[in-house]
Amino acid sequence: MAFSRGLVLAAIVSCYIVYVYLRRKRQRKADKIFGAQNGCLPMEVMLPYKWPFALDVLKKQYDALPSQRLLAFQSQYFDRLGPNFKLMLFGNEGYMTTDPKNIEAVLSTRFEDWVMGSRSAGLYPMLGEGIFTQDGRPWKHSRELLRRQFVRIQYQKLDVFDNHVNELLNGLASAPDTIVDMQPYFFRFTLATTTDLLFGETEGVLTNDVEDAFASSFDYASLISAIRLRLADLHFLYKPKKFRNACGVIKSYADHFVSRALKTLEQEGEEIALSRYPFILDLYNDMKDAKLVRDQLMHVLIAGRDTTACLMSWTFYLLVRHPTVLKRLQKEIASVVSGNERNVTRAQIAQIPYLRYVLNETLRLYPQLPVNVRIAAKTTLLPSGGGPHGTAPVLMPKGTGVAWSAYHMHRMTRLYGPNAREFDPERWENTDLERQIGWGFLPFHGGPRLCLGKDFALTEASYAVVRIVQAFPGLRLPPTGVENKPTGEERQNLTIVVSSADGCKVLLR
Ligand code: HEM
């Protein structure tokens, strides 16, 4: 009996192996036909490696970590190999690109063919289910729901930022040291503005201890989540207890606001509740599940907080190192907004185009999602990079990973000319660059998953920059004690976003 059971099991396993083999064979044949029909040729450029499974490539990256110049280190690959190359990691083939045509295919023209891959599992403990990690129909639903909120916000008056900017200015003005690191102030500022946007009235609701525990848990959980993202399919190897605790703290913080909104709805009626908690209640109206609402809020929070803080930090980092640019910005701001005017309007910001050029140029040099990845959900192609000239389409069998680097693309001389690595806001002035460059400028990506918070982020950053520049006319780089390397060679912290490892140290007076 035991013998025959073993035999049955062996037969089932053998059948399964044969089935998988035949399915793969059929898939390979179908892929080949698809490739031939579309004129695909193999990508000939490959990142060289010497050790089995290309472990030497991994080791080199690992060795570059302590210097905190990983992105600068990776520049050599693109400089040497060009915009597209193939790489092997643990025996799997993957592709790297800075070619606008290929990025456009992944994000737009062949959008349906690509998915997030392991991003969802990597971020799940911190964020749960939501827009930033979903694909297909669930993503479409989340996008539609959240888009409504961002349309509403576009018409908000900018005085929603006023209290937080005043707090930021007061904090900077009363900083204990002469040399002030602005970066941590910006992180606090964008946490406050984004939680306000999402959770509604947050001011004075919770004690300072709870607020501080939330802020530090959010920072820590984001850091560990970024490491888990980099581990891709091996994310399960890294889930330390402190991380699990931090995820618990931020979730119960968000839970608190969701239940507060629901209680207000129950006790004070729809009109009052909606005026205080529009974001939460509109989501709840559709989702009818407090946990799912909380998760969506966390997704938007992670998408919006660090990105905008880093944009502001890099902006001032660059401004104090380029005093001529700072001087011109001060002048142009002063010509539109008078010195004691506190409530800056959208119309005024629109009248300071130089501010847009400064922000564009900062986002070009330091795009906040420097490197990103998608996985082919079905067999598809990249339009460019194949064959001897690197111009033919390349077959991407189902499951292939493609990473693209906006960071390195934005520094390519082929796109931005010989001074591509320099901070030069004037390049955006009196030129058609913004339109011409198309998919060559992607701080907010493009296509159906274009950043939903683009307008909010740019408005928030513009508003704060105007107020800071007005408040501190003596703003400058300290003459000593602060590193001043060429752009891109400074030390960087690379989490999900890229920030300056030395902060943004300035003299305010
Ligand atoms: C300078 C600031 C910002 C930058 C550079 C930025 C950049 C990006 C990028 C590149 C993506 C695409 C990610 C991907 O598809 O893999 C994205 C998505 C997203 N961003 Fe932003 N973002 C910024 C600020 C914000 C803010 C302030 C919010 C909200 C308050 C926000 C909300 C979102 C959301 C919800 C998505 C997901 C969209 C989707 O998948 O359909 N972002 N952002």
TrEMBL record:
Its cofactor is heme. Gene3D superfamilies: Cytochrome P450 (1.10.630.10). The keyword Electron transport does not apply. InterPro entries: Cyt_P450, Cyt_P450_CS, Cyt_P450_E_CYP52_ascomycetes, Cyt_P450_E_CYP52_fungi, Cyt_P450_sf. It holds the Pfam family p450. GO terms for molecular function: heme binding; iron ion binding; oxidoreductase activity, acting on paired donors, with incorporation or reduction of molecular oxygen, reduced flavin or flavoprotein as one donor, and incorporation of one atom of oxygen. The keyword Cytoplasm does not apply. PROSITE patterns: CYTOCHROME_P450. Keywords: Heme, Iron, Membrane, Metal-binding, Monooxygenase, Oxidoreductase, Transmembrane, Transmembrane helix. The chain crosses the membrane at residues 6-22. Belongs to the cytochrome P450 family. This is Cytochrome P450. It comes from Polyplosphaeria fusca.
